[in-house]
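Look over this record as teaching material.
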Amino acid sequence: MNMNATPASAAATAASTSALPGAPLQFIDPRRFKANTREAVDDAHLRRSFRGAMDFLQTRRAAHFADTDAFERLRRLGEALRQYSLSRLPDLLELLEQRLTERGVQVHWAATPEEANALFLAIARRHNAKGMIKGKSMVSEEIELNHHMADQGINCLESDMGEYIVQLAGERPSHIIMPAIHKTKQQIAALFADHIPDTPYTEDVDELIAIGRRRLRHEFRDAAIGVSGVNFMVAETGSLCLVENEGNGRMCTTVPPVHIAITGIEKVVERFEHVLPLYSLLTRSATGQAITTYFNVISGPRRPGEHDGPQELHLILLDNGRSQAYRDADFRPTLQCIRCGACMNHCPVYARIGGLAYGTTYPGPIGSIISPHLLGLEPTQDLPTASSLCGACSEVCPVGIPIPDLLMQLRRAAKHDPDPGHPPLAGQASAKDWKEALAWKAWAWLNGQPRLYRWALTLARPLRGLTPPWQGGWTAHRTPMRLSKTGLRERLKG
């Protein structure tokens, strides 16, 4: 989704560039999340800037949902539509493929990022393409498309202004809607002056936008392949819907002779009328707009007699862990997400540490519940704990995802084996601690023996002064737990 703003904020990239096993070299390791958060919290300018940006976005959203009853009715409709689509997901995907194929679209299926990148490379080589021009696509970030193509000598250039800025900086997006929200105009001015030939340093925002446009304009004409994401796929009509503000998405999908769209398998809906309420929820929740500047509907390559549009159109449908979330009814609501970013804008944790600290494609609350499915629980086990469980994310979610409940389920899955009859999540029980597990077993056994429990308390109270001052994560921000001199039973007797 291409709806960017760049409120003034500053941040150094807190995350390291160490690679996950088997992952692209550019991937930032989410296992450094705790270290990243400490660095981000110590950056007072980052915290102040993000707080201002989040307040601005919250105010914009609230203005469009001033009538809470109307919002709740629309949200219930959006939630029902997403749940209905997911309940029929296999059938809808097959129907979508059939309709798109009838319209001349070549549909590809990719189980992993590696398979998706191989499809991109095969198409590029078949057309002898040396460059791609890309509109905003979080799924392309998910598969590290730019870096994979660069390794093969193919330049993949971002045309969305926010994405172009972070690409020049060699960083990842810090927000799914506003990729460069962590950048100041001074930082952007320095980037343009350093990386764009014959560009003077200027802090005039309008001039910076004009510089970016001039730099990118000829790329649309010269690129052999245009790349885009997809916001909604309509199975009944075989249509791909793309939401944007800048117009670069329309250029990417019409000017180059080949267009490759990539999206997750969950983005499908049955009928076109199902798109309308979801679109209304998306734009208002994301940037507080009643409607975006452009709403593109793509239904096939250029037909005889038409003057624009690609001569060849491909759609890559990516799984990458989404089937894992789909197969479990408890985790399936994760896939209801329409990528509006509202949960991030209202999250007190995200507002203090920004998006780069998470080390994942999708930061914030939605990233904390979807990244464990995309990457496995072993490298992402700390992300579900990055929440105060205040419920703000769930209150503003336009499609009713119970994010706090999902966070709690993932916390449990990280430390416990699956229940009988339930297939394990990738990396399940990776955070399991045998000492902690033994302590809880002992606690459960002791609490099942009332007489022994009272006797143990009687023995323990005289030794309360020996309570260790360090009690793991509890004492990082709290005073140590210590037995009281008298128990509740004795006080009630008194």
